[in-house]
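Journal club prep, shared notes

We agreed each person brings one worked example of a sequence with its structure written out as tokens. Mine is Peroxisomal OPC-8:0-CoA ligase 1. I'm keeping it raw so we can talk through how to read the token line rather than staring at a rendered picture. Sequence first:
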Amino acid sequence: MEQHSNNIIVDPRSGFCNSNSTFYSKRPSIPLPPNASLDITTFISSRPHRTTTAFIDASNGRHLSYSDLWSAVDSLSFSLSSKWGVRKGHVILILSPNSLSFPLVCLSVMSLGALITTANPLNTTREIAKQIADSKPFLAFTTPELSPKLAGSDVPIVLLNGELEKASFVNNNNLKVLTTLEDMLAVKGQRNEESVRVKERVCQNDAAALLYSSGTTGASKGVISSHRNMIAMVQTVIGRFKLDDEYQRSGGSQGSTFICTVPMFHIYGLVAFATGLLAAGATIVILPKFEMNDLLLAISKYKVSYFPLVPPILVAMVNHADQIKKNYDLSSLRHVLSGGAPLGKEVIEGFVEKFPNVVIMQGYGLTESTAIGASTDCLEESRRYGTAGLISPSIEAKIVDPETGNVLGVNQTGELWLRGHTVMKGYFNNQEATVSTLTSDGWLKTGDVCYIDEDGFLFVVDRLKELIKYKGYQVPPAELEALLLTHPEIADAAVIPVPDKNVGQFPMAYVVRKAGSSLSENEIMDFVTKQVAPYKRIRRVAFIDSVPKNASGKILRKDLIKLATSGSKL
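Then the structure, token by token:
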């Protein structure tokens, strides 16, 4: 047994403490700066840079050096505060695909103590309008192509990659466009004694980001991440990849190169690729969108060493390995980082056989935990098939019986609770949801049914939250059910996940038609398709006489899942 500094006795094998029924991380603790005034941007920019190049845009080959990045961040934050009145606590929206502009905007906004909120470019105008109504952004950054999705919002817009005099869409879509990013950056040479940047004191506990997480009740909830949450996440990422050690092993001649296929609007993309890996001096290759050929060409051209992906991409690489190795040079690749769902033995061993020089790493996290929770950091750990990995550094975990509230032990299954520096501050303007998710002593109820084995490895076996995972995207069934019930010919509906080897899971709807209706499967799918992002679309519809529910009216999804897989009738 090991004794922690607070006299807690912990089993070194499992990380479990019998006296308080808590699992402690077996990984070394992460160092955090003192609780002083410090924002995430200053924290990142103050660290030593290991390479000259910060970002590369794979779509056009443009390089952005670290010196130019920090100069641009300084100019943009000056313009935002002195000319456009952005202040601490303001919410700034960015609606954009991955680009060089994305991290520039995020870093500048957060340096002022304002909150960055991100929107999925695939979302519909209706979905984005709901986020705007909740977050009430002071400004919005978006591209000319995506700007019509902000029509009717009355949010002042700054255009990315656009020129005002050529933006005929502005009048056509009744948009309130203020200026362009290029004009904002030009203020550097226009400063005078009367132009003063307002830089308010920013503390680590202040809010830095407002990201929307799929809920179980239909509506997304704004997750408030503090500067300390993000700093802790950055430190965890740096420690996990051992980037400082890799740089030293190369004799200071070479840093690490990551390829950013993860959307920057997502918590992992925002904190790791738009901001965090800069703290380790890594070079980040940006792809505006995922396309397999472009991705593999970029890995080859820019000698990428780290490749984040979701399980369907890993499966595709295994299935087409011979063709990939014939047409692309992946000799620089050293690690793939898989998230979204645990990998099975067949996939892991198939990948190891086809790409023996590439190490598989996996991860588990939530928006509410700033993407931190558990990880496998080497092949040996990943070969504990089905695991999400060991609990992340400086994180504590509990397994709690969701029915009784009893705290459980090793190899016992219940809801996973997490506590640590990366756990969110709460939900934006939603005290009820915050209280039901965060305990008074800081435990985050993840909504995932898990167990931790005798060696401290976490296994996710079910979801209390019932989210469907489509290509790594989260699809809340309740949101689709609420939408289906707005159709005049639908009396009741339930949505379930259907396993699929190519996409992970896809949404299927069971529908009860109103009397006399002849509504078809295609009509229902078209109805949903017009109102949601592509990843939320219903892929299959079946008709039933009634939706099975328990005494309290809760949909019995497990019965429907069994029905879908067995082909029988209820």
